[in-house]
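Hey,
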Amino acid sequence: KRKKNHSTAILQLSIGNRRLIFQLLQADFIPVWLHPFLADPRHTFCGVSIKDDVDKLYDRHKLCVRKIADLNDLARLATINSQNGNGGYKYMGLKKMASAVLGKKMEKPLNVTLSKWDVVELDHDQIEYATIDAVVSYQLGYTLCTPIFFVRSQTLS
């Protein structure tokens, strides 16, 4: 389940081996480089239910994210391709999708999920949680957009 303020309190980015956890609600200003970076059509930002988060980023912070891919849409496409048109795909959260697609177990402790994300200083568990969330979203997007994944999915069914 999505946290109400989590997606707008922080911005989580993972690109290759780099991570950024930016506390939007604690920032006095948005870094000048962030606007063109998010609006660059060469960058695709992936996440579960990402459109809701992107809408909130624009409404609350005037950050425009130009190119997005919802991980459930990508997974649904891979599933439909692998099942020759069988639309039996069911919506998955990030934790379940990480297991199904990447074979990785994600720990998402409820006490961290439901913690206060609008605090001045995130604690170690929150930073770890947000970082893992960003990394797994990146890995899923990369995997689901790789043509070999579609070939592998088709041969497994």
